[in-house]
Amino acid sequence: MGTILNGNIIEVDFGADDRPKYLVLDSAVRAAIARGDLPAGTRLPPVRDLAWRVGVTPGTVARVYRALTDEGVLEAAVGRGTFVAAPAESPPIYGEFQALAVDSTPHMTGGDSYAVNLLSPHLPSAGQAELIRRLLTEVAADPPSGLMHYPVHASERRAREAACAFLDNPMLGPLAPDDIALANGGQHAISLVLQSVLRGRRPTVLLEELSYPGFRRVAEMLRADVLTVPIDDHGVIPEALAEIAKKPDAQVLCLSPDVQNPTCGRMPEARRRAIVEAARAADIQILEDDCYMMGKTELPTFRLLAPERTWHIASIAKTITPALRLGFALAPTGRQLALQRAAEYNSFGLSTPIADLASLLLVHPELPALMDETRDMVRRYVETAARVLDGHDLTWRPDVSFLWLKLPVGWRASAFCRAAEAEGVKLRAAEEYAARDANAPHAVRFAVNAGVSLASFEEAMKRMRRLLDHPPEGLGV
Prior knowledge:
Layout: H1 21-35, H2 47-54, H3 58-71, E1 74-77, E2 81-84, E3 93-94, E4 97-98, E5 116-117, H4 128-141, H5 157-167, E6 180-183, H6 186-197, E7 204-208, H7 213-221, E8 225-229, E9 231-232, E10 235-236, H8 238-244, E11 250-255, H9 269-282, E12 285-289, H10 302-305, E13 310-315, E14 327-330, H11 336-347, H12 352-361, H13 367-388, E15 393-395, E16 402-406, H14 413-422, E17 425-426, E18 428-429, E19 443-447, H15 454-469
Parallel strand pairs: 5-17, 7-8, 7-11, 11-12, 12-13
Antiparallel strand pairs: 1-2, 3-4, 6-14, 9-10, 13-14, 15-16, 16-19, 18-19
Helix pairs in contact: 1-3, 2-3, 4-12, 5-12, 6-7, 6-11, 8-9, 13-15
C-alpha cells in the first residue's frame, strides 16, 4: 500500500475557484487520481490530517471522502483507513458479445474533464445528496408505509401534503392534496395527464412547433396524432391556435410557458390570457409543463387562469435531483378522480419508500437553503457561458439550467453538433425539438453540466466559441 508523503500530491487552491470548498477538494482528489499521483491502493491521510494540511474543516474532508467512497473512487477499510480504489474491471466477454459496462459517471461528470456532456442538465450537489442519504436511512429504519404492502392512494397522503407545501405559490392557485397525483418523474406525469385526457380512436395532441420531445413520444405511444402550432418570441400564436384547434379530434395543447423548452423564452401574461380564450372557444384542455425553472413563477399560471381545463405538471429534477424520479401531476377542477385512476392503473402509485422519503424531503427545513445554493451554483455556470459566448445570438436566464444558441451564418445545427462533439462537447440540435417534417432553425440547445468543474465547463464554452468564430471551410454548407 502506498502512502501520501507530503501535502503537494493533492494540488488544491481554494482561492482560484469560487465553488464551495468541498467541491474544490473533491475535484483536486479526482485530478490527482487521474494524473497518477495517487495510484490504486494509495492510503489517503486521516480526515483531520488532510484537513490540517489543506486548511479546511474535518467535516469538509469527511464529506469528500464519503462522496468518493459512495462512487467507488475510494474505498474504506475498517480500522485501516481510506484508499484509492482499483479501476473497475473490464466487462466479461461471453462468446462474441461483451457485457455492457455501467457508466459510473453519467453525463461525463466528475471534477475536471475535457469531455463535457451538455445534452441534459446535471445539477451540482449543494448538500441535497447528503440530506437524502440521511432521510433514506431514517425511512429504512422505520418506514411509515411499511415494506410489505401495495401502495394505495391513502398511503401517499403525507407525501401529497408535503407536495402541496413544496409547490405552494399564489400564482398556482388553490391546491389540495387530492388535486395531486405523485408520479415517477415529470415524463411519467405527462403520460398520466395524457392518459386522463385523450379519448376516441385517433385523438390529436397540439404542440408548440419547437417543444420538449417527451410530449411527442408520449402522444405517439398513446397512438395520438400530433400537430404543431406556430410560435413567436412570446410563445404560441393565439390566432394560429384558434385555427388549428378546429380539427375535430384536437383535445389538448401541451406547452411550457415559464421556460419554453428549448428556446428559454417566457410567455407574458397577455399571451397566456389570449391562449386561454382560444382554448375555451375550441374546448380543448391545456397541459402546462413547469419542470424547468429553478424558482417559482411570478406570472399567473394557466392553472390559475383556466382552472377548469389546465393540467399542471412539475418535478424535482431541475431543482433537487433527477435521481429520485419524483414528479407531480395536478388535475383541473372536477377531474381529480380521472387522474387518480390513471396513476393507480399505471403502477398502483409511487413506491412506498419513495413516498415516505418525499413526505420528509419536500418539507425539510434544510431544503430551501440547499435549493438556493444549487440555484446559485447553476447561475455561475450559466453566466460563464454567457460571458464566453458574448456577441453571439444566445438566450439564457440565470434561473434556467439550459441555454439556446442561434448559430451564425455558415453553420447548420447538425454540422455544428458534430464539430462540437469532435471537440469533446455534446449538444442538442434544434431538429430534436421540431416535428419530423419541419424546417428547424439553425440553433442548438446546451444544458449546464455542473458535475464537471467550472473551469472544465468554461473551457468547453471556449471550444464552442472557437467553432462559432471559425467554422471549418465547407462544413456548414
